[in-house]
Write a structure and sequence with these properties.
heterodimer; A: 91 residues; mainly alpha; 67% helix; globular; B: alpha/beta; 4-stranded antiparallel sheet; 16 helices; binds flavin-adenine dinucleotide
Chain lengths: 91, 595
């Protein structure tokens, strides 16, 4: 079970996935749907701390920069963000 | 439930272009100003605007505000108020230059002046030929605009309340507006923001449609709040659709794709635009293409298992052209349609893009309602600007690049008017009636206690599908009638939404349920206003109001040259005259809208 602090942290993360560009809204919506599906299957108990931390950093980016990264027009040399971007690109 | 009260001179709901522009005006005047926003200001939907902002600067060729005014009146299909349109077009240069002074990095000509490019519907010399009128900052105009104005606000000490959701308008027995109630997402705390001036700049409601180019945040909160507080909504039947949104996702595929040779095809593979527009074909204007697509789908020639989209084919173009001239399209098709557009066609549908109607205002940014025989009496303490407001400059159809201009001009005028009104009014705040907060508390309480209620996602989806099917680009009497019945049923379900998670902190389920309360108001206003307007005009096109010699384009000026006002109570409709008289120039006389 998730404690209140973690639930709050994930709630905040989810809200920060509301973006100015529809493209990103949809990409993040799918991301969370995949998380929920895995959680329902008992494969994990919410995001792990590392992914959470990476997501927090990623969500600090400006929307256009973020979309360019997700759509593969720019790259990052941060290995943690790279993994997350890979994950986000899955359809 | 507990709440606290915080006092300000002015409170603004929304930190997009309109809200930020209004805030500058108030804070510069030394007023204590709060801006409440659901998301960080530079994540407001204004960021998505790329095309630019219109102003007749005449930097590259001769231009004049009067020509811009003519284009806007014509674009509006004569439903726009000509005083407001003159005001906006005359003010355009001033607000764009101000923005430059705030640090907006406009594209420039070699001589250092702002570079301008042409945009659909903007012409020189009263409709003669296209003119360069749009000012842009690369393909990030909206983003650059928000950044420049946010910085300016920080300098002049505007107080931002980020990740707060405004819930309801506070009015007293006189009908005066005294502020808003809001919830802090971080804590779930309810606060009354008490203010002598309340400005709504909460953006559009594109998410009432199933297929929309708008980000998820565009839920029309300001419109819902106004409607619940007894303020009517104006001209809500008028929605601009973009012909090519990716089916199922809504993500916009730019007009440039057809410009480069993209072809629309039906289930038989036929290039159907040849039948509808033999000359322009796939490059005909937005509304012509959208209606043709809808006709193909309605007549059973749509594609896919449900025959509910058409295909945009660019497979005949050289891959180098696609990758070089249309960057991003390959990835959009892949991500959102799951197709490799070099080899397969992209499924597309006409997609809701921009709301022309909204909270009724005049060109001073004051919210106006019918009262004591006056059809536009200002509501004391209440102002609105941007996509949530209806000034009305866009009338029945908006010209591209005119909405960013609308934000700047009417954001500023709403701020200016509020400053002037505050100078004249009493120093103290009016007493806050206790009942004023009750509506919000009752709504939250209902949501917390609801059992065996309806699911928020499912109810929202039912509303969106109803809007798309029964009140889309091309409208039919029977479908509208069905649509009205259906939306009233869905309203019942919205009144009984249930959330399982009742936690206080960043509870996104609660936020979305409260948003749906607003969306349903906008959906009802749209459907009911559309069913009642028995003509075709601008973006509202009815099958039973076709183009005839007596009524060109199906427009019926004798009976329908008037603004709709929808009132939530009893779903009552009222109408008010269009302001045909500009401020200083002659009326632009009624004519058939043809390009
Ligand atoms: C893809 C796309 C491209 C476009 N391109 C152009 C273009 O090139 N040129 C042009 O002129 N127009 C364009 N438009 C239209 C234009 O971008 C919008 O009309 C305009 O940006 C709306 O600005 P706004 O300030 O009214 O609202 P927004 O920018 O949408 O801001 C709304 C604000 O209200 C806040 N808010 C909403 N509800 C609440 C609540 N309950 N509590 C607290 N805060 C709330 C939000 O957080 C946000 O800060 C485009 C639109 C789209 C969808």
């Amino acid at each position: 079970m998730m404690d209140d602090a973690r639930r709050a942290r994930q709630g905040r993360l989810r809200w920060h996935c509301r973006r100015a560009l529809l493209e990103l809204d949809i990409v993040f919506q799918r991301f969370w749907e995949r998380q929920e599906a895995r959680q329902a299957e008992g494969l994990h108990d919410g995001l792990d701390e590392e992914t959470e931390a990476a997501l927090e950093r990623l969500l600090e980016l400006q929307d256009h920069d973020l979309w360019e990264m997700v759509s593969g027009r720019t790259t990052t040399n941060d290995p943690q963000l790279e993994g997350l971007i890979e994950n986000l690109r899955r359809q | 439930m507990n709440y606290t009260v915080r006092k300000f001179d002015a409170v603004i709901v929304g930190a997009g272009g309109a809200g930020l522009r209004a805030a500058i005006q108030l804070s510069e005047a030394g007023l204590k100003t709060a801006v409440i926003t659901k998301v960080f200001p530079t994540r407001s939907h204004t960021v998505a605007a790329q095309g630019g902002v219109a102003a007749s600067l005449g930097n590259s060729e001769e231009d004049h505000w009067h020509w811009h005014m003519y284009d806007t009146v014509k674009g509006s299909d004569w439903l726009g108020d000509q005083d407001a349109i003159e005001y906006m077009c005359r003010k355009a240069n001033e607000v764009v230059i101000e923005l430059e002074h705030y640090g907006m990095p406009f594209d420039r000509l070699d001589n250092g002046r702002i570079y301008q490019r042409p945009f659909g519907g903007h012409m020189s010399n009263f409709g003669e030929k296209p003119v360069r009128r749009s000012c842009a900052a690369a393909d990030r105009t909206g983003h650059a605009m928000l950044h420049a104005m946010y910085q300016r606000n920080v300098k002049v000490n505007t107080q931002f309340f980020v990740e707060w959701q405004a819930l309801d308008l506070v009015r007293d027995a006189d009908g005066d507006v005294l502020g808003v109630t809001a919830m802090e997402m971080e804590t779930g705390e309810i606060v009354v923001f008490e203010a002598k001036a309340t400005i709504f700049a909460s953006g559009g409601a594109g998410r009432i449609y199933y297929s929309s180019t708008n980000a998820f945040i565009n839920t029309g909160d300001g419109l819902g709040m106004a409607a619940r507080a007894g303020i009517p909504l104006e001209d809500m039947e008028f929605w601009q659709f973009h012909p090519t949104g990716v089916a199922g996702a809504g993500v916009l595929i730019t007009e440039g794709v057809r410009g480069e040779g993209g072809i629309l095809r039906n289930s038989a593979g036929e290039r159907f635009m040849e039948r509808y527009a033999p000359n322009a074909k796939d490059l005909a204007s937005r509304d012509v293409v959208s209606r043709a697509m809808t006709t193909e789908i309605n007549e059973g020639r749509g594609c896919g298992p449900n025959k509910d989209f058409v295909l945009l084919d660019i497979t005949h173009l050289p891959p180098e052209t696609i990758m070089k001239r249309l960057p991003g399209i390959h990835e959009i098709a892949l991500q959102f349609a799951g197709v490799d557009c070099l080899k397969e066609s992209i499924p597309v549908v006409p997609t809701a893009h921009y709301q022309m109607g909204g909270i009724p205002t005049n060109f001073l940014g004051q919210v106006v309602v019918p009262k004591n025989g006056n059809h536009a009496e200002p509501v004391p303490g209440f102002y609105a600007a941007g996509e949530c407001a209806c000034a009305s400059v866009h009338g029945a159809n908006r010209l591209g690049t005119n909405s960013l201009l609308d934000l700047l001009v009417f954001g500023k005028s709403a701020g200016e008017t509020a400053v002037a009104d505050l100078k004249r009014s009493a120093a103290a705040h009016k007493p806050l009636p206790k009942e004023a907060i009750d509506r919000t508390l009752a709504r939250l309480d209902r949501l917390n206690r609801q059992t065996e209620g309806s699911n928020v996602d499912e109810t929202r989806l039912a509303m969106q599908r109803n809007m798309q099917k029964n009140c889309g680009v091309f409208r039919f009497k029977d479908l509208l009638k069905q649509g009205v019945e259906r939306i009233l049923e869905i309203e019942e379900r919205v009144a009984h939404t249930e959330i399982r998670d009742k936690s206080r902190v960043f509870n996104t389920a609660r936020i979305e349920a409260l948003e749906l309360d607003n969306q349903i108001e906008v959906a009802k206003a749209t459907m009911i206003s559309a069913a009642a307007r028995l003509e075709s005009r601008g973006a509202h096109v009815r099958d039973d109001a076709p183009d005839t010699p007596e009524r060109p384009n199906g427009r019926d000026d004798a009976n329908w040259l008037k603004h709709t006002l929808w009132f939530r109570e009893g779903n009552r409709l009222d109408y008010k005259p269009v302001h045909m008289k500009p401020l200083t120039v002659d009326t632009i006389e009624l004519k058939k809208r043809a390009y």
